[in-house]
Amino acid sequence: MIACLRLFTALCLAALLAACASSPSSSLGELPRTPDASIEQLLEQASQAKTPEKAALLRLSAADLAYRQGNAGQSAQILQQVPMEQLKPGQQIFASTLSAELAMTRNQPKAALTALSHPSLQHLGEMPEEQQVRTGTVHARALEADGQTLAAARERIFIAPMLQGEAASKNHEAIWTLIASLPTDQLQPNTTDDLGGWMGLAMAVKTAGTLEQQQAAIDNWRKQNPKHPAAINLPLPLTKLKELASQPLSKIALLLPQDGPLASVGKALREGFMAAHYQAQQAGQQPPAIQFYDSSKLTSMDEFYRKAQADGVQLVVGPLEKPLVKQLSTRPQLPITTLALNYSEGDQGPAQLFQFGLAAEDEAREVSRRARADGLHRAAIMVPKGEWGDRVLRAFSQDWQANGGSIVATERVDQPVQLAQQIADMFQLRQSEARAKSLQNAAGTNVAAQPSRRQDIEFIFLAATPQQAQQIKPTLNFQYAGDVPVYATSHVYSASGDVNQYNDMNGIRFCETPWLLETSDPLRQQVVAQWPQAAGSLGRLYAMGVDAYRLAPRLGQLKALPDSRIDGESGSLGMTQTQRVVRQLPWAQFVSGQVQRLPDTPR
């Protein structure tokens, strides 16, 4: 009886070992696979294994099983018990891949890439396709998370021929998402391989303007590359573009307030919108019909949408009022695609809602981008007290620090009389004065000493009104900080043409809409001739109205093509994954009372 039990135990052990190892490969070693045993059983067998290799193989299999069951912590603990140096190259590849997968569960792409740099990975091409796919997939994920977009695309293109079914489709779409997100200057379609083909397709789509031109570019690319994977199966976003091109926009509802506190804002937006519409007509295009609705007289958004549907409206531009935009953002869906002209507080909204506005947060992020491009690292911040200042401060800080910058001082500006003290505190001038006084007392005589400011502030981020900026810049000069660069949002610029006002802000650099910086633009000249107020600060709203018109037929295009942009009058326009239109702006500087244009920030 005992002999039978021993024989049965031996047979079970043999079965377990056979279950957790694939067919042997001469020099690469046997690979673990999902066994018909529990993690506990595998660990028990590992503790009783006769050879270190069998023990390591069983533990490797147990670690993999724990990972597949969603227990990353247990998997990592078991994997730490596996001595990599005792494994054969194939097993080292397996262990390195699992280690990378575990790193990605902790959102540590650099650790994953380190794991995948093991010397054994040079033998990956000799491994079974299943292992090549598994390693290649986590490698692509890690590269993408680390910002190495092109390398991630290369990895996915490499594993594509080994995939089938749903896995192949997901990888195919992922390749396009990666390639389409590359800036145009990184697209170099000068090779005949699959990567060159993908780049050529992205370049063709991005350099075409209208939906119709994009469709023609796609069709032409497919004729030239009939055997390319993307020609055989067009990526889903491009299929959607084809659908959009086949459904031209024929009627737009413009929903803006005509009465109340926002009437003047609505009027400027409406006039800019219609100016772009008439320009399209003059250019021989067939623009959609525009129907006006007064949002200040709305009693119900549901009633508005019912009327708009009955009127044959395909797209709503508006509303402007923040409470109405917030209301729309909380709905599960909208009956008509809507481009709201303001932003809700939350990030998510229904699939039919797009949001566009002159957000100060966009400008704060633009300052962060510009300062980084100029090689700066340490910022001081001056924003107004209150909710608006808090939002701008938060947007700048998040973007600046996420990209490696540091914030060494922050001041919230309120009453002008406090400015001198606030700036002195920011630059620690009072401490310097105290040291000078202490030195005088110790010496018993007057000592000529000029206060010295702290030296770790490389620039100041300023969000302020023109009146505040007029006081802040001279105060900086007075407080021995006149040489510290100031980067500001457009709010410092009144566009009034008052040279005396701008003299007080000499040296301040600021981002601004193309509308107010590029005065030779033909449409701007036409609008200003009819509405002179469009040349001043109200011009930003006219520019937004123009851009709302130009965005209307291209919302699906921006959504379908990540990182594509429209050069608008209110800035270079792109779209986030949450369907918010965001702006990048050109730059200028006050020089001797004049506004001097600066080179654009590199994209």
Structural overview:
Residues about 1-25 and about 430-435 have low confidence and may be disordered. The chain folds into 3 domains: about 15-145, Serine Threonine Protein Phosphatase 5, Tetratricopeptide repeat (Alpha Horseshoe); about 250-355 and about 520-575, 3-Layer(aba) Sandwich (Rossmann fold); about 360-440 and about 450-510 and about 590-595, 3-Layer(aba) Sandwich (Rossmann fold), CATH 3.40.50. It is globular and about 90 Å long. The protein has 26 helices and 15 strands. Helix 14 crosses helix 25 (about 540-550). A 7-stranded mixed beta sheet has the order 7-6-8-9-10-14-15, sandwiched between helices. A 5-stranded parallel beta sheet has the order 2-1-3-4-5, with helices on both faces. Strands 11-12-13 form a 3-stranded antiparallel beta sheet. It is an alpha/beta fold and about 600 residues long.
